[in-house]
């Protein structure tokens, strides 16, 4: 659980002016992972890792959808998160883009961005996070993992009450999924080191906004600690 004193101790401190931070002082609270959580892994697919650990600006001509260094920086903490979730035995839901033909009408797209012609494996989950047989992959057409998918019914069937979120992009599909999850009544925790974007300032500002309005942004170490307790409870049942 995060204390009120540490509520603003996050990556956005260098981009949000003190006078603006003061406007959000009333949002300060203890942060936590809610009961009966599931892990949502948003769009951890191959295309965002293309080109390796370089600036997205340097990769843009050849790999215009890559998050480059920001995606690769998040690999190790996200592996830690997955390992903790699997030890705790909580459900894991991935999502990826719907790329089947005749699956949508023209214009039904997740963003307005013009994209290059996709490769066949663009939307395959990246090898560092290969889904296991017990995991569920949600195929989506819009930004949110909730929009037009069976996720809500799956969560209801499993008795899920809260969500832990990782993935990309912070300003896009992560943000849309977090807002929809909050709006549906779930307590949402976003794992700070395990979300990323193509532009760092957009990443930081969107985390700042989500933290104050819709979610608890928490470091991976705190999430791991909570999931250790979850695993102990399950073992005792």
Helix proportion range: 25-40%
Mean pLDDT score: 93
The number of distinct helices, counting runs of at least 4 residues, comes to 8
Please outline the major beta sheet: 6 strands, parallel
Biggest sheet strand line-up: 3-2-1-4-5-6
Overview of this protein structure:
- The structure is a single chain.
- The chain is an alpha/beta fold and 237 residues long.
- It is globular and about 45 Å long.
- Helix 6 links the parallel strand 4 (162-168) and strand 5 (187-196).
- It starts with 17 loop residues before the first helix and ends with a helix.
- Helix 4 runs parallel beside helix 8 (220-236) and helix 6 runs parallel beside helix 7 (200-213).
- It has eight helices and six strands.
Give the tags:
about 15% strand, alpha/beta, six-stranded parallel beta sheet
List the helices and strands and how they pair.
Blueprint: H1 18-23, E1 37-42, H2 56-59, H3 68-73, H4 75-88, E2 92-97, E3 136-140, H5 151-158, E4 162-168, H6 170-183, E5 187-196, H7 200-213, E6 216-218, H8 220-236
Parallel strand pairs: 1-2, 1-4, 2-3, 4-5, 5-6
Helix pairs in contact: 4-8, 6-7
């Amino acid at each position: 659980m995060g204390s009120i004193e540490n509520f603003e101790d996050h990556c956005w401190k260098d981009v949000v002016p003190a006078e603006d931070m003061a406007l959000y002082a009333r949002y300060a609270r203890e942060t936590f992972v809610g009961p009966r959580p599931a892990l949502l892994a948003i769009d951890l697919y191959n295309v965002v890792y293309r080109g390796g650990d370089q600036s997205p600006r340097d990769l843009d001509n050849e790999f215009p959808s890559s998050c480059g260094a920001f995606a690769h920086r998040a690999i190790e903490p996200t592996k830690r998160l997955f390992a903790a979730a699997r030890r705790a035995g909580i459900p894991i839901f991935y999502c990826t883009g719907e790329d089947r033909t005749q699956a949508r009408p023209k214009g039904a797209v997740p963003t307005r961005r013009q994209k290059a012609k996709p490769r066949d494996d663009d939307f395959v989950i990246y090898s560092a996070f290969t889904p296991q047989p017990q995991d569920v992959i949600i195929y989506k057409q819009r930004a949110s993992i909730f929009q037009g998918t069976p996720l809500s019914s799956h969560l209801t069937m499993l008795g899920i009450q809260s969500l832990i979120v990782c993935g990309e992009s912070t300003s896009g599909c992560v943000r849309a999924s977090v807002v929809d999850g909050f709006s549906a009544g779930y307590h949402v925790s976003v794992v700070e080191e395990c979300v990323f974007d193509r532009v760092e300032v957009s990443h930081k500002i969107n985390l700042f906004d989500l933290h104050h309005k819709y979610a608890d942004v928490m470091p991976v170490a705190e999430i791991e600690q909570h999931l250790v307790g979850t695993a102990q409870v399950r073992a005792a049942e």
